[in-house]
Amino acid sequence: MKNLSKKIICIVGTRPEAIKMAPVILALHEQPWAEVKVLVTAQHRGMLDQILREFSIIPDFDLNVMQPNQSLSALTGRLLIDLEKVLKAEMPDVVLAQGDTTTVLAAAMTCFYAGIAFGHVEAGLRTGDMHTPFPEEFNRVVVGKLAKWHFTPTPLSAQNLLVEGTPESQIHITGNTVIDALQYIAAQDSLRPEEYERKVILVTAHRRENFGEAFRNICTAIRTLAIRNLNVDVIFPVHPNPNVKATAHELLSGIQNISLIEPLGYREFIHTMNRCHLILSDSGGVQEEAPALGKPVLVLRSSTERPEAVEAGCVRLVGNNTENIIKETELLLNDSQAYRKMAKGTSPYGDGNAASRIIAILQEHLS
Ligand code: UD1
Ligand code: UDP
Hints:
- It is a single chain.
- The chain is an alpha/beta fold.
- The strands form 2 sheets. It has a 7-stranded parallel β-sheet, sandwiched between helices. A 6-stranded parallel β-sheet has the order 10-9-8-11-12-13, with helices on both faces.
- Helices cover 47% and strands 16% of the residues.
- It folds into 2 domains: 6-176 and 350-366, Glycogen Phosphorylase B (Rossmann fold); 199-342, Glycogen Phosphorylase B (Rossmann fold), CATH 3.40.50.2000.
- Helix 4 (102-114) links the parallel strand 4 (94-98) and strand 5.
- The longest helix has 19 residues, at 72-90.
- The radius of gyration is 20 Å and the shape is globular.
- Bound molecules: uridine-diphosphate-N-acetylglucosamine and uridine-5'-diphosphate.
- Residues 15-16, 19, 178, 204, 206, 237, 263-264, 266, 269, 283-286, 289 line the site of uridine-5'-diphosphate.
- Uridine-5'-diphosphate (UDP) is lined by residues 15-16, 19, 178, 204, 206, 237, 263-264, 266, 269, 283-286, 289.
């Protein structure tokens, strides 16, 4: 059996990649035909390690590339050089990576140069605007040109690839592995349905295109909401990117009903999402998880590559204008009918079996 096995290297760099690749990695470890290795670039350090611990994933290779306030070019350069050393020495049959970070771009490029087949998990997401989100739209467009297998979360993401000329035979609609990860947590801990005693607004933010004035506008909206609604609490696990952290602490510290806290572990974050009243976020993963938990999300962006939940009515784009964020949030706080319409709890992103579909497709194609 051993000499028939296929070597698969799973590459992860940041928190969301670890969460979304964990179900694939754990399920691949169960496959007798697969020799699985996990390579972490550690584009994120602390937040990545937090998630790896929660899913009991021990990396085989750790590139440890993160540097404080890293620039995109310097990060890409370090990744390309370090990834090549490992991948050329290992020459796996397949490399798998998820999403649209710089780690994924560099992984796909390194595989292309080295002639290694690349499978893209969460393929086909598009806004159609190269600058939003920045640089992620660019990353996924390039990765879309380089991948051999495109595992898309929804029919719409498959359609995006077809429009770009990707052969249909290379596109596989699997659902999003984030729902698998969510169900993994839900199966271990029973998620309590009750909300916190006081209404909680959960906030996350980290997008590069929002840095500067847009993020200041967002923080000003949160500040005003907290001061005007003293019966409401704001919980904000602050992303460690210095561009986020400095502004969040400058504008939101010292307000009694705002808690600025360290990033939460995945398990604790899911519990917090499940018990909060509504979410303000520019995160991709949160737009997918919250609908599955029946929590409305106001997205702090003007476009999204995840329009399915907007169409389903669970997610609304509110942009980064201070007045608009306040207006839309207070509508949900004060109008129970408007709130109920959004808190519908339908998940357009899958049924929790995405990882097993991805593995079945790989097994069929590799055998
Ligand atoms: C990155 C991804 C983004 C993804 C996000 C998830 C790119 C270009 N960006 O954005 O697509 O949505 O991760 O969170 O790939 N830092 C720490 N500790 C950590 C993580 C980050 O201190 O555990 C700080 C460091 O100073 C680091 C900075 O944050 O240099 C930026 O990290 P980076 O991965 O470049 O960008 P993110 O904004 O985290
Ligand atoms: N998340 C977490 N702890 C937190 C905030 C978020 O575990 O304090 C999880 C969240 O459940 C989701 C993922 O991190 O699965 C989203 O990561 P992020 O917003 O950093 O990146 P994006 O999804 O926008 O790429």
